[in-house]
Amino acid sequence: MPLIAVNGTSLHYRFDGAEQGPVVMLSNSLATNLSMWDLQVPVLVGAGYRVLRYDSRGHGQSAAPKGPYSIEMLAEDAVALMDALGLGEVHFCGLSKGGMVGQMLGTRHGDRLISLVLCDTAAHMTPREFLNELIEAVRKGGMASMVDAHIGRWFTKAGQERLPAEVDKVRSMILNTPVDGFCGCCEAIRDMDQRESIREITAPTLVIVGEQDPSTPVEAARLIHERIAGSKLVILSEAAHLTNVEQAEAFNEALLGFLQP
Length: 261
Known about the structure:
By secondary structure, this protein is of the alpha/beta class. The chain is built from eleven helices and eight strands. The two termini are 32 Å apart.
């Protein structure tokens, strides 16, 4: 899984699937890495897609320069990666922070998108104080200071009991996220407001959200859906924030149903 220099940083990426397939580009959430998509890759590859995953700036094996970052910067990272790999258009799918990047791509680089999938994400996050407090806590206590709270928000209690191995895998991702990268991305999320700009998105768009997501709730997904003309909204039951893990089968069905209508 190679590294590539793009947009003033170094990104870790991975391809799966035959080279001739249309590309589905997957963008990770805050405090995870490209392996968060492990349950989607076999299904997408089996359907004939070439899957491109990458670790966002500050995450996984990508470089973690000190922030602040911005959603604009993270979107330009994604476009620069596409350019460096010789990709023209992609199906872009992002979850949480990855979905925020997807919204920015939709408004700034819509010509590079075949379609757009926005999962458990928001166009604006409030209150700012919560993210400032989170940054301060992680600066003082490291990633271990917030891991339990995040697991509790990312999975329902039933999901935690049903999927202990997957939850442990996510816990490990959180703990291994560089502090500078996490805080830089928190600053990007804190300062983002795409509530009006997303009206400009014209790419075919699917919005997915967990019915019990407390981080980017159904109301946030409805706002995105209502402001992107022609978009489709899917609400997954018995799921919190990481719908692609907690309800992988239903998530994959919705994703493939959108990509292959």
